[in-house]
Amino acid sequence: GDLAGGNFTYAGGIFNGNPPDATNAITDVDNNHGKDLAGRVVVMPFRSSGTAHPLSNFGIHLGGSTGDQTGPLPSYRTSAGQTYFSFPATTTADGRRNRVSPAVFLYAKSFGGFAEYARTSMDIVSGGVARTVTNQAWGVTGSYVLTGEPTSERGVRPRAPFDPAAGTWGAVQVAARYAEISLDRDLFTSGGATANSSRKAQQMTFDTNWFLNNYVKIYATYERFSFPGSSRANENLILFRMQLAF
What we know:
The chain is mostly beta strands. It is built from 1 helix and 15 strands, in the order E-E-E-E-E-E-E-E-E-E-E-E-H-E-E-E. The protein is globular and about 65 Å long. 18% of the residues are buried.
């Protein structure tokens, strides 16, 4: 729902729950009767001032979830599906899992900026010893629409959809993102991580988005993953994708 003319937005839900922070859709299943409670509030203090206000698309949001998790824990993977952290079979989830994620964003004309932080704490059993571990991640994204269209949290709408016969080509946006995750040091000192696991992963992304119209998007992405303090080699990835949205 919305309050105060759209200056305040809230959302909440009850979800099946899945293994914490998994990046592999195969393991995103509900394996127990417990449910997760999740919610988010977004404050856009200048939205009701009108689109002419330079900060009308400035906002702060706070999201979080809580739930119980038991059983095997997932591996952490890069975008290409390469595992950089995994738990040994002797480490399992065993209790409460809490997440909190604040973020701030600004969309001004053709520029878009977004920064977020995420913190997850979870109860585990490692080698028969119960403990609580905390993992943290953050990321910063900046974008700019080269063809001049305004952007917002809802994306880019081309002024002139792709139509070669009419000499129009849609909208083009470039973006860059830096993100980093740090896993709890206690996982490595207590035997809660496999021998080849990396405690940190850093990701640098460069992206070009081509919006053919309001429903079709084609984008090319270059990503570089590095793993400080680890012998794991850096990973470079090039992705081409098409998205249909209605």
